[in-house]
Amino acid sequence: MCIKKAIGISIIVTIIGSGLAVAQQVRTTQTATMKAKQLTFGWGTNIMDFSGDCHLTIDQGYNAEMKAPSMQVRLNNEMNMVDSLVAKGPVRFVIITAPDASGVRRQIECTAQKEATYNEQTQIIKLIGNATAAMKTVGGSAAETVNLTSDTITANLKTETLTVEDVNMTIQRPLNR
């Protein structure tokens, strides 16, 4: 995924990828919507460079949103799927997970000062440069927030895990009085 800017013009690029859900034999859709001031598209390389107020939204069971000054998107050869994305910072990334077996959804809000990268094949997002992550449950009565800081935070969307090295963690919980 890539992002570039054009003054006074808002560009919306919608990339729709379809897959077959084997268990249900039903066609599913993933929609990614990109907005930016400018887009430069290299059709020989399938690279899209977006700049100026870049805003990416993804809807696929989980909801994700990324904002950054610039993003570069690499599409696959069929141009119907994003292979990779590099967002230059500061970057803000928010994901609300699909419900787990108990029906619980989680919100993870992350930031990185340098950049964020995404690889579709591995479904790994890497936040680099003074990275932060704040995690909490969505809905219900739980109000606890777990805050993580590190130079690099890695989120694996396939395994639904965060990996943080040299981590500083704080947990905030309101007191009942």
Describe what this molecule looks like in 3D.
This protein is mostly beta strands and 177 residues long. It has a single domain (2-172), classed as lipopolysaccharide transport protein A fold (Sandwich), CATH 2.60.450. Helices cover 0% and strands 67% of the residues. The chain has a 6-stranded antiparallel beta barrel with strand order 6-7-10-11-9-8. The protein is globular. The chain starts with a strand and ends in a 5-residue tail after the last strand. Residues 1-27 have low confidence and may be disordered.
Question: What's the quick description here?
Answer:
The protein is mostly beta strands and 177 residues long. Helices cover 0% and strands 67% of the residues.
Keywords:
177 residues; mainly beta; lipopolysaccharide transport protein A fold; six-stranded antiparallel β-barrel; 14 strands
What is the helix content?
A: under 10%
Main sheet strand line-up: 6-7-10-11-9-8
- CATH hierarchy class name: Mainly Beta
Strand tally, please? 14
What series of H and E elements makes up the topology?
A: EEEEEEEEEEEEEE
Our estimate of the beta-strand percent is: over 45%
Q: Kindly report how far apart the N and C termini lie.
A: 48 Å
Q: Oligomeric status of the shown chains?
A: single chain
Q: What class, by secondary structure content?
A: mainly beta
The CATH topology is given as: lipopolysaccharide transport protein A fold
Number of domains: 1
Rg for CA atoms:
17 Å
Poorly predicted regions are 1-27
Largest sheet: 6 strands, antiparallel, barrel
CATH H-level superfamily: Lipopolysaccharide (LPS) transport protein A like domain
CATH hierarchy: architecture = Sandwich
Average pLDDT reading: 80
Tally of DSSP helical segments: 0
Note the overall shape.
globular
